[in-house]
Amino acid sequence: MSDSAAHAGAHAAHIDLEANDGAHARVFLDGAQVASWIPVGATDDRLFVSRNARYGAGQSIRGGIPICFPQFGATGALQQHGFARNSRWRVVRQRNDADGAYAALALTDNDATRAMWPFAFHAELSVHVAGASLTVELSVTNTDGQPFDFTAALHPYFRVRDAYATRVCGLGETCYRDALQGGAEFREVRDQVTVLGEVDRVYFNTPDVLEMVEPHRTLRVEKRGFPDVVLWNPGSAGTAGRADFADGDEYEMVCLEAGAIGTPVSLAPGAQWTGAQIMTAVSNSN
Ligand code: TA6
Asked: Which protein residue has the closest C-alpha to ligand 1 atom 2?
């Protein structure tokens, strides 16, 4: 791990997943937030974390993989992206074997969550690191006596050498909602989408396998159970307007998220929903 990744937030409660092959991930208990992932054979972190990120109780780290639950964005009555990213999760399982390193963290309803969202639930975030891949899976069980609906996303900030030279491949012919155009909807005409300044789009019902292509390396970003994808870059105004970003961060990150956004997930009492994102360093040059 790079020195900065090793020291950033090291004082805050976290667990390190070290696979036998050398692949590594770090997960903070606040927000169950993965904030570092280094695939086998690499020295660079594939996840971006701002040097101005804040750590600790109630904070969502600016970078890594925040969890948006039970609301994506500002589309409902809850706080932006829901409360999961601001809640302390607990480690419920951890192991390290020939298949890699694995941990599961859980969040269940409590007085604070029920004051915001009046339902009983059990959420688990499992993280598995091995070889060239990181798998992050969110499952939600309705432990209430009544049905509930939610939206959700895994919101990874991928570290890139130059965001404006990065292409996202595989979104051609899908429909998207563009927050920068008042939420109007369009059909994507390009198969390779570039990030040239601020971008804030939800693509609906996309293919499950996309690629993030940089001039020197490629990352496969796959999803399961999540129908939608979000592409976000804050641009210079977006980083300047948020104290937990540093100037220039917009060039070093691209968010390519897996979400259940367009159609909320409806869960009957006792039912469970699962969504996952699998990230694989296809070509691994540092
Ligand atoms: O996922 C994209 C998005 O919803 C953007 O609209 C942008 O606001 C971003 O998330 C980050 O939100 P945050 O609340 O973390 O500043």
From this structure: 232
Distance (Å, whole) CA 260 – CA 202: 10
Per DSSP, the residues of 94-141 read: EEEETTEEEEEEEEE--HHHHHHS---EEEEEEEEEETTEEEEEEEEE
pLDDT of residue 283: 77
- The token pair that represents 162 in the structure block: 């130059």
What's 239's DSSP letter?
Answer: H
Give yes or no for a contact between 91 and 128, defined as CB atoms under 8 angstroms apart. Answer: no
What amino acid positions are annotated as catalytic residues? Answer: 155, 257
pTM, two decimals, is 0.96
Cα distance between residue 155 and residue 245, in whole Å: 16
If you average pLDDT over residues 181-206, what whole number do you get?
A: 96
Q: Quote the CA–CA distance of 96 and 19 in Å, as a whole number.
A: 7
pLDDT value for 2: 47
Is residue 132 a contact partner of residue 219, using CB atoms and an 8 Å limit?
no
User: Which one of 61, 71, 80 would you pick to mutate in the ligand 1 pocket, going by the greatest count of ligand atoms within 8 A of its CB?
Assistant: 80
DSSP structural state of residue 48: -
The 10s digit of each residue's pLDDT in 204-221 is 999 999 999 999 999 999
The answer to whether 85 and 116 have CB atoms below 8 angstroms apart is no
pLDDT value at residue 1:
46
Q: How far from 257 is each of 50, 56, 188, 275, CA to CA, in Å? A: 18, 23, 17, 12
Atom from ligand 1 closest to the CA of residue 62: 15
Q: Please identify, by atom number, the ligand 1 atom nearest to the C-alpha of residue 242.
A: 16
Residue among 147, 130, 64, 138 at smallest CA distance from 96: 130
What does the chain come to in residues?
286
Cα-to-centroid distance, 90 and ligand 1 (Å): 25
